[in-house]
Amino acid sequence: MSSPHRVTVRVPATTANLGPGFDCIGFALDIWNETTVELGPFAFEIAGEGESTLPKDARNLVVTGVVTAFRAAGLTPPEFSYACRNAIPSGSGLGSSSASIVTGLLAGAAFADHRLSTHDLLELAASIEGHPDNVAPAILGGCQIGVRHEGKWFTDEVKLPPGLKAVIFLPERSAKGSTIETRMALAPEVSRSDAVYNIGRAAMLVNALSTQNLDALRIATEDRLHQPARTALFPYLNRLIKAALDAGAHGAFLSGAGPAVLALATRREMTVAYEMTEAARLFGLSGKTRVVEPSSKGGYVVKAE
User: Does the pLDDT at position 136 exceed 60?
Assistant: First the structure.
């Protein structure tokens, strides 16, 4: 079979941390980027999210993923043109960088006629991103726990309750901070009491999701490792979390490194969305709210021709 000259890939958004699961747990969302990569002179087009802000040269993470896949196959990549139709907001805490990395890896592997196992994809993607909480669900779909053991990344799936919805409040761009900035806000060390606090809640979070014990999520999505420090960058966070919980959400947290705030609901999701938006308005913060479902499907090649 000859190698393709055009490949189209779809990859979902993701939300990471889920409160206490810092850098190790996340799930895929039904929001998708679709990218077509074609052999030919280099060109880069973006339509939709990130059209005016994302790089359109070799710095784009889709290109990084393609080059990484070719190198994994022991090959030198030829020139490609890229056409991206992005629905995942960039710099939002919804995994846009991970989606770009996974997009490039899947497209590059298809062009190089090089089969990358799920483990290969995870290793390569996490080596670029630095941690697996977004890339694992972007690859595999669903809710994934990612840990490193003896120099390798491992994942395990957590079954999400049926009917679970993600209610997302996304502030205007003026409220955004880069992942680097939000990481710099974190202390290099944590106290034993804060570590114990998060260990217990991360364990409760996984158990609550897998056993559909939704009442436990209110406590299980609490955090002391990253959210308190990030409230300096996103001072609206605690108000939106409280508004979501008071409106009937089961749990709420900063999505990834922010600035998006995400609430988990199986009922009254439109009320939760309204109350989060109203809390933001009273705080003087503009933005938009949307309700989406988790995605059980990860990134995939739509067409190779």
Answer: yes
